Amino acid sequence: MNNAVLLGAVKEALQGGHSCTLNVRGYSMRPFLEDRRDSVVLSPVSNTLHEGDAVLAELTPDHYVLHRIIGIDAERITLMGDGNLRGTEQCRKQDICGIVTRYIHPRCSFRADSRMMHWAVPLWRKLLPIRRYLLILYRIARKIRLL
């Protein structure tokens, strides 16, 4: 199914008050989410968004990203993938379709507001200057099946 069609349907379901489980595609949220391995549960957006929240946003019509909020300025939201070394996206609050409330890995699942994510997300953000090297090590470990 075309990504724009699928994510458009997810957006409609979220606007209707439903939660959706979405299989992750792409590498921009490494190391927290892995392409075709992990899933997330998306829930409708409450009025409150925070830095560190992972969200599904529609940047332009039919162009969606699942990235993390790294800045909030009045109505403008700045997003960046955990696996990105630079480059951010901007959107408006009304462009946020849903918020990740649960991460699902093959061997476990946990809430987005868990204690582990509460310390891991800010730590990963502080490691941005050396993220390139950490992601190289992560990819090597994935290749030799350590992770």
Notes on the structure:
The protein has 147 residues and is an alpha+beta fold. It has a single domain (3-143), classed as Ribbon (Umud Fragment, subunit A), CATH 2.10.109.10. The chain has three helices and eight strands; from the N terminus they run αββββββββαα. The longest helix has 13 residues, at 3-15. The protein is globular, with a radius of gyration of 15 Å.
Instruction: Give a short account of the largest sheet.
Output: 8 strands, antiparallel
Looking at CATH, the homologous superfamily is Umud Fragment, subunit A
Q: Which structural class is indicated by helix and strand composition?
A: alpha+beta
- Quickly count the domains: 1
Segments where pLDDT lies below 50 for 5+ residues? none
Amino-to-carboxy terminus distance: 29 Å
DSSP strand tally: 8
Separate helix tally = 3
CATH architecture assignment name: Ribbon
CATH topological fold name: Umud Fragment, subunit A
Order of helices and strands: HEEEEEEEEHH
- Give the overall form: globular
Helix content: 25-40%
Tell me the radius of gyration.
15 Å
Average pLDDT taken over every residue:
93
Strand content: 25-35%
Q: What attributes does this structure have?
A:
147 residues, alpha+beta, Umud Fragment, subunit A, eight-stranded antiparallel beta sheet, 26% helix, 33% strand, globular
Map the helices and strands.
Layout: H1 3-15, E1 20-23, E2 39-43, E3 54-60, E4 63-73, E5 76-80, E6 89-92, E7 96-104, E8 109-111, H2 115-126, H3 131-143
Antiparallel strand pairs: 1-2, 2-7, 3-4, 3-7, 4-5, 5-6, 7-8
